[in-house]
Design goal:
Order of helices and strands: HH
Distance between the termini: 53 Å
Largest sheet: none
Number of strands: 0
Number of helices: 2
Strand content: under 5%
């Protein structure tokens, strides 16, 4: 195991093993999403929900 720190100007990871570990995790999550049988939610509907939530948060902060 190489414990040499990576240059933060080149990589956001602390060790050489982290990029491979992250890549494997990310690919697994993408495959899980692809394989998910639940109905898809259209982007516009999700964007509307998020905007509503953010508006409520802003209103609470303003109060």
């Amino acid at each position: 195991m190489n414990t040499a720190a990576l240059d933060p100007r080149i990589s956001e990871f602390d060790t050489e093993e982290q990029p491979a570990s992250y890549d494997a995790w990310f690919r697994l999550k993408v495959q899980e999403a692809i394989d998910d049988k639940r109905p898809r939610i259209p982007h516009d509907q999700v964007a509307h929900r998020v905007e509503k939530i953010l508006s409520e948060i802003r209103s609470k902060k303003a109060a």
